[in-house]
Write a structure and sequence with these properties.
This protein is of the alpha/beta class and 325 residues long. It has two domains: 27 residues, no CATH class; 277 residues, Zn peptidases (Aminopeptidase, 3-Layer(aba) Sandwich). Helix content is 40%, strand content 17%. The chain is built from eleven helices and eight strands. β1 and β2 form a beta hairpin. α3 crosses α6 and α6 crosses α11. The longest helix is centred in the last third of the chain and has 17 residues.
Amino acid sequence: MGRHVKPLSRIVLALLATVGIGLPGTLDALAELSAESASEHQNPLDAARAYGYLKEICAIGPRVSGTDGMRAQHRLMRDHFTKLGGTVSFQPLQADNPLGGPKVPMFNMLVQWNPQSKERILVCAHCDTRPLPDRDPDPLRRRTGVFLGANDGASGVAVLMELAHLMPQLDSRYGVDFVLFDGEEFVYSERDPYFVGSTYFARQYATKLPPYKYRWGVLLDMVGDADLQIYQEQWSVTWRDTRPLVAQIWGAAQRLGVSEFIARPKYEVRDDHFPLRNIAKIPTCDLIDFDYPAWHTEADVPQQCSGESLAKVGWVVYEWLKTVQ
């Protein structure tokens, strides 16, 4: 990495001029250094555009596995990533319907960047929404309400959609795969299985032996909260193989000055990183803001999220991808 120099303020430059410090060109050089340093720490992701993606996803309505809403989202994502140069494919699977009847068709979406590389990084999110807002304060809405899943579902997808603008210019020896998991929470009761899509993906990776290997995995889940606070997920720092990954990512956040990444654990969260790490043996950590009062309620709408939060998370991930070890 190049050196990081804090930008010099106009006040400091003025003081230097006042006391006469400077050979010819000194102030110009200082101003150039200040501008260069500031550009090093300028977020290359577009917060307004990222928020626009989140709103576009939510405008579809609920994206429950096997529904028209999910199919519309798949078309939106496929067209978006293809236009920006990603190689898009789908991984089909079938899942039991908790309500009975025929199996439900599901699809994980894979978007590859630098697909010829045999060493790869996995960056993933779930793209489905829970069928019902089962934690809504109103008991009736828990059974009949509409769950849009702005943060819990759309936020990770929106970050990847925005990050895709930068992927063609990423200079890394690793290839990068975005994976959008279906069936993360196709759940009507706590007896129903979670992580259907990621579990299938992990088993296929473990048994089919693809011609490449994932070095690391990073899961984005609930990363759009307007009051963003991303603590280190407890399992991700407990597992010995994922601990160095956590250190790298929070180190990237510290370099960038993204204070919303808080370098201490707070919650244990079972999430899509479990099958990826435990079945596929891909060391995977979970980036998640679990301090979210609207979780699994009808209040999980775009107004609870912000483009600045989405862009900051994407910036940290992009910085880490540039320096990944």
